[in-house]
Amino acid sequence: MTTPDKTVTSENIFKKIISHAKEYGFVFPSSEIYDGLQAVYDYGQYGVELKNNLKTLWWKSMTQLNDNVVGIDAAIFMNPLTWKASGHVDGFNDPMIDNKDSKKRYRADNLIEDKADEYEQAGDVKKAKDLRAKMNQLLGANDLKGVYNLIVEENIKCPLSGTANWTDVRQFNLMFSTKVGSVAEEADTIYLRPETAQGIFVNFLNVQKTGRMKIPFGIAQIGKAFRNEIVAKQFIFRMREFEQMEMQFFIRPGEEMKWYEQWKETRFRWHQAIGLPAEKLKYHKHEKLAHYANAAVDIEFEFPFGFKEIEGIHSRTDFDLTEHQKLSKKKMQYFDNDLNENGKPYGNYVPYVVETSVGADRLFLATLCNAYTEETVGEGDQQKERIYLKLHPALAPIKAAIFPLVRKDGLAEKAQMIFNLLKYDFNVIYEDRDAIGKRYTRQDLIGTPFCIAVDYETMENDTVTIRYRDTMAQERVKIDELSQKIGNEVSFKRIFDKLS
């Protein structure tokens, strides 16, 4: 028997997930009627609900479950000196290379990473590790000629042309710029923010003083960021416009490793609590650190295209606040009057920072990939393929769908009454078109955990049939028990309990 190629199977699954996302209202190519725009996507009616649920859950997990974390919403436009202080103006670059035959541009490090992934899939883990180590060494030394030579030595070819006819490697700044001012000639250049973290850092003292916050404390934010990615791939995994969920945790110098380890473990458990299996999650420790960090690790999820980052935890030292202090000439210090081990106040210092940064779009994609389920149901001649989204009920876009068995004899009016009863507490829908079996199937495809059928027995005793998405099991329930029953299953508390 021939063993199916795992890579081909995974690629097929991913194509199905992308098709499913469009067909059932989760993600659309942006401005598709004009042939779209590469690496830009719109969230459809069910996609926006799922994404909002993920964001709300993250926000509550940070600001509601931690009494020392608060939130802000900083502007996308910032004084351009912000990006000078952060290092983005001078150093926010990716190594780019063009293929002369296909005219396509690639990130050189991505090409090498893909080659390392090939070695891993072929079972040569050592070769993959050595290749990554050599790449990191060259990038760390900004040896672009060496990176080019490594691509040639590895015989890495363009996926489109199949040739290795490459240009030299050069650096490309990823920030989008625009102009602010009423007259073009006098307008100032500003940038669309490439990350949300700096909005937190420049507001550090505003939040600390107005909130009377004591270190350690955190500031959380959800917001859009923009990067001029030349090669965006893997659907919404890498986009030019994306959303980040970040928390910067301010601490005493010298305590960063303790908090780094604590947040690293806390965030890993959070991803499991929302339904991502432990076997599909792993840590990836950074060997090559960013200029601001003294420790960094990624939490990676196993997508159909391999293990990739969904969240980063970084010990950012005091780099950001110190650089803003230097350039702005404003003190970014905290006076800590708690006593140290010698019985003296800690005094003034620039706090250190531990960052947790989740890509909202990547988390959405991980959740969607994990939920996409194909299974065979029935026996013998009655066997058929079933597809559904096995989403955690708390995350599902629609919590329940209400169906009258038929539209006559008062059943439709009764179903509407139940819909009106539930709609103030849950996102529910009413549907009465097509056979009820087709209605069940439609709800399975968007991940609705409960379907409520109103039939003739309902008219006699005020009970309905509730069908469970995952098992397709059905049970009879009183109408006045529906709210509590659904509420227990879709509550965020079921997730929070796993974090205790």
From TrEMBL:
Instruction: Give a Pfam family name.
Output: tRNA-synt_2b
One GO MF term:
ATP binding
Q: Which UniProt keywords apply?
A: Aminoacyl-tRNA synthetase, ATP-binding, Cytoplasm, Ligase, Nucleotide-binding, Protein biosynthesis
InterPro entries found in the cross-reference section: aa-tRNA-synt_IIb, aa-tRNA-synth_II, aa-tRNA-synth_II/BPL/LPL, Anticodon-bd, Anticodon-bd_dom_sf, Gly-tRNA_synthase/POLG2, Gly_tRNA_ligase_bac, GlyRS-like_core
List of residues binding ATP? 227-229, 237-242, 309-310, 359-362
Which compartments is it annotated to reside in? Cytoplasm
Enzyme class, first EC level, given as a word:
ligase
Signal peptide stretch: none
Please give an example of a GO cellular component term from this record: cytoplasm
User: What region holds the Aminoacyl-transfer RNA synthetases class-II family profile domain?
Assistant: 131-397
Indicate which residues the UniProt annotation says bind substrate.
107, 195, 242-246, 355-359
Look up the EC number in the record and give it.
6.1.1.14
Q: Which CDD domains match?
A: GlyRS-like_core (cd00774), GlyRS_anticodon (cd00858)
Which chemical reaction does it catalyze? tRNA(Gly) + glycine + ATP = glycyl-tRNA(Gly) + AMP + diphosphate
| Entry similarity comment | Belongs to the class-II aminoacyl-tRNA synthetase family.
Q: Which HAMAP family match?
A: Gly_tRNA_synth_B (MF_00253_B)
Q: What does this protein do?
A: Catalyzes the attachment of glycine to tRNA(Gly).
PANTHER family from the entry?
DNA POLYMERASE SUBUNIT GAMMA-2, MITOCHONDRIAL (PTHR10745:SF8), GLYCYL-TRNA SYNTHETASE/DNA POLYMERASE SUBUNIT GAMMA-2 (PTHR10745)
- Subunit relationships: Homodimer.
Descriptive protein name: Glycine--tRNA ligase
Task: Identify the species of origin.
Answer: Rhodocytophaga rosea
